[in-house]
Amino acid sequence: MAVTVKMKDSINFAALQWRGTLRQRWLEGVPAGRKCPIEKSTLKLADLIKQGFLNTDEGLIYYDTGDLDETIEEHMMLPKPSEWARTYRVLLDPNVKNAQDEKDLQLQLWEGHIAPGILYIDTMYRRPGTGPEAGPPSSQIAQAAYEAKYPIDTLKHIILCDVVHKPTKKFIKHQLYTEKNGLSWPDEKLVEWKYNTPEYKAIIGTKIGNVVAYIVLGGFPRGTPRISSIWTCSHHCTLFMRFDIERIEPVKTAPLRQPRAVKTKRRNEFSDSDSENFRQLKRQKSF
């Protein structure tokens, strides 16, 4: 399975960094210059069943956990969990239950695995739009799946397997795995992108980073957890991502303001060529 969503071509580093910084401020519960639109999620699996998005027979399925354990231990460098409690398959459109092939089905579902402290996402796709026909946001489905078995405050790691979202993968491959960073693609070594660095913020600013941030924003009180670090690795050119969550003390900092155009463009600055990117970001719908 693969993590896949639709989005326009990738935007530049500076715009992603600004977008990630904004979400970082929301997570920390500090003034950000723009109100956080993500409310606490109350979505439950029972709601998905009632809405027709989750069939109790098809939705609660079990997998051979050998591959999951291998990914956790060998690629994500975490201890093997004591159990894999559930695998969830959530159909985002009841009509695709009659899909003719796996491709049709995959384009309309969320699938993940649950273990103590671990939310492991295999597949997610939400149709464009914000109405009921698009289904619940992927972040809310992920939270509901985890909370069906464990309290959300026990969540420590969010793992995404085989990320094929083109803008996110292109950004990581070409702008992070560079000679300047001492990296080349592919690289099976697990690489940490430390908290509050330009690279960290830019990853949070990607569409995949947004989903993870929204899981945390929808599940925890503001300013109590943060995404403490992000890890990436490529296994046979397949991108794996791991987001670590830790509890924090409230952070006090100045409000974030969208930067004006500057003459030079560096990773931690913005140029007037970014203005179109900012307008593009405002138009995009969260999922």
Features:
single chain; 287 residues; alpha+beta; eight-stranded mixed beta sheet; 8 strands; 32% helix
Tell me what you see in this structure.
The structure is a single chain. This protein is an alpha+beta fold. It is built from ten helices and eight strands. It has one domain (13-283). Helix content is 32%, strand content 19%. Strands 1-2-3-4-5-8-7-6 form an eight-stranded mixed sheet. β4, α6 (138-147) and β5 (157-163) form a beta-alpha-beta unit. The two termini are 19 Å apart. The model is unreliable at 1-10, 261-275 and 277-286 (pLDDT under 50).
Strand content: 15-25%
What does the average pLDDT come to? 78
Relative helix content: 25-40%
Major beta-sheet overview: 8 strands, mixed
Supply the number of structural domains.
1
SS content category: alpha+beta
- The N- and C-terminal alpha carbons lie at a distance of 19 Å
Task: Give unreliable regions as ranges.
Answer: 1-10, 261-275, 277-286
Instruction: Give the helix tally.
Output: 10
Please count the beta strands (DSSP E, at least 2 residues each): 8
User: What is the radius of gyration computed over CA atoms, rounded to a whole number of angstroms?
Assistant: 18 Å
Question: In sequence order, what are the helices and strands, one letter per element?
Answer: HHHEHEHEEHEHEHHEEH
Global shape = globular
Main β-sheet, spatial strand arrangement:
1-2-3-4-5-8-7-6
